[in-house]
Amino acid sequence: MSGIGRREFIGAGAALLAASGLAQEKKIQGFDEKDPGALADEAWTPFSDRKVRVGIAGEGVCAFGSAFGFQNHPNVEVVACTDLDPERCKLLQSRVKAKRTYPSCQEMIAKEKELDAVYIATDAPSHVELAIMALDHGLHVASAVPAILGREQLEFIPKLLEAVKRSGKVYQMNETTAFRPQCFEMRKLYEAGAFGELVYTEGEYWHYGPSTGGVGSYNGWRNGLPPQYYPTHSNGFYTCVTHKRFTEVTCMGKPSTQVRYLRSNRYDNNPFGTEIALFRTEEGGMARMAVCWDIPSDGGEIGRCWGQKAFYTKDRYAGPNELVKGVQRKKPNLPPGVPAGDHGGSHGYLMDDFIRAILLGKKPEVDVITALNTTVSGIYAHLSAVKGGETLKIPSFSL
After folding, report:
1. Are residues 169 and 200 in the same domain?
2. Cα(231)–Cα(390) distance, integer angstroms
3. Range of the structural domain that residue 233 is part of
4. What is the torsion angle, in degrees rounded to the nearest 10, for the CA atoms of residue 350, residue 355, residue 357 and residue 358?
5. Phi–psi pair at 379, nearest 5 degrees
6. Residue 347, in any domain of the structure
7. What is the pLDDT of residues 62-74, one digit of tens each?
8. Cβ neighbours of residue 113 under 8 Å, at least 6 residues apart?
């Protein structure tokens, strides 16, 4: 195989597999956070009698293909799946109950005639090209994060936007922040005007890894990865709350003492294991967004905001009660049998949001514009860090 298909995620890392070769020895950060937040008491209400026929690409080290619960949704039929590792592909098929398997995502997109949509849970460098290919084949697309990876992929932005516009299909980036209980509540309060404009926002993604390497990755794409090339778990605490963008950034990075950053890597020999960005927001406010992988911490993906009228910190709203009267601040129930999943109970909600967007003709919470606003700002943050904190303008996107 060559081209797009060969760059998919392979779940091969022996250090992450148990004696069977298939089960994880240790939970990866985020996959041990299942609390979805307080759910509404009312029962789930069916919204369509149609089924979306889905193909799933990539089980990999994180078992991401099966983790979002497509196989459990009453409005989904999983018709096909793929992983470059035959054993992982077989495991994925058993988990999602797919009728057929393919040796690559490229082949699944090109040959599977029953598909309506694909979920791309492959390695990060392949996301954007596979998404464009699927859209060009008339398929709806849910993509794992990030939408694009690094400076080298900026050229794909107009191609992705054109593919979404030309196809008229749903594109969603599965940014887990969007349906963490804190971000969900912040978004509902923001939409109700409880904050006014946001003056200051903080987002933090702390994920400490061992000196020689972190989570396994296909072809080592994570090795030496600039932290702000993977910014969505922090930036989402602004972009997935407001659906607005960052306009400029200054970012500082500190060269790491860890072995994995001292050796050469594909990212222009990136030396930074921690990058802290200060953004100007579309509202004229400020946002500090941190991505840190090389210093010990408690870990986690955390966000806070301070608005003109109120603030949200320590997982709670603080402001006048009259501003939040009648606001539904809890996540609704999922269909029976659909788990909320990991990353703060976000997996099932992202999947359900994608299916609703397709069947109800609505925009998903993390559509292509929000996906790019969340992702590309981090790329410019890293470029700023490389330039010693120089302030850089961030482009805007539209369909």
Report:
1. no
2. 19
3. 177-328+368-393
4. 150
5. -60, -45
6. no
7. 888 999 999 999 9
8. none
